[in-house]
């Protein structure tokens, strides 16, 4: 049995949170971690009790949706609300933080920003993180490690393809299907 790494575990948590996002423009999740423990989580969404982008559409000003509080900010604010210190904590985000979130993370004492996907990585955000000594580390989520039936699925598809090969004379098409299966399962 392969044990999931801490990085994969926390990033998967952020990915799960992103699924709760209420803004259709981008689904982001963030998890704040201290001493290998999750202390807060957030996703981008409207202020509590207000209408959601998914229901009423985005409120766009100058090309940005102004309705939502960003995932990183929501996670930090959860700490503020319940009095949980964020000093020397780390954050796992699905996307590289925007400039506003970058500044808030620095001010909150976050030490490392783990992100899964590049997202308009602003040069000034990178500069600010570097000046503040905040580390930036890319951690791509390996979805296959999260799938407990991965092995069975791979073997099943392999079996189907082999069976198909014995029935079908068009080797070209089977070859294409095999290549597609390999890209999905490896
Ligand atoms: Zn929106
Ligand atoms: Zn942001």
TrEMBL record:
Obligatory cofactor(s):
Zn(2+)
- Keywords noted in UniProt: Hydrolase, Metal-binding, Zinc
Q: Which residues form the signal peptide?
A: none
Q: Which GO terms describe its molecular function?
A: dCMP deaminase activity; zinc ion binding
Q: Which organism is it from?
A: Ornithinibacillus halophilus
Superkingdom as given in the UniProt entry: Bacteria
Q: Which family does it belong to?
A: Belongs to the cytidine and deoxycytidylate deaminase family.
| Every CMP/dCMP-type deaminase domain range | 5-132
Q: List, alphabetically, the SUPFAM superfamilies matched.
A: Cytidine deaminase-like (SSF53927)
Which InterPro entries does the entry mention?
APOBEC/CMP_deaminase_Zn-bd, CMP_dCMP_dom, Competence_ComEB, Cytidine_deaminase-like, dCMP_deaminase-rel, Deoxycytidylate_deaminase_dom
PANTHER family the UniProt entry points to: DEOXYCYTIDYLATE DEAMINASE, DEOXYCYTIDYLATE DEAMINASE-RELATED
Task: List the GO cellular component terms.
Answer: cytoplasm
Coiled coil stretches, renumbered = none
Q: Would you tell me the protein name for this molecule? A: ComE operon protein 2
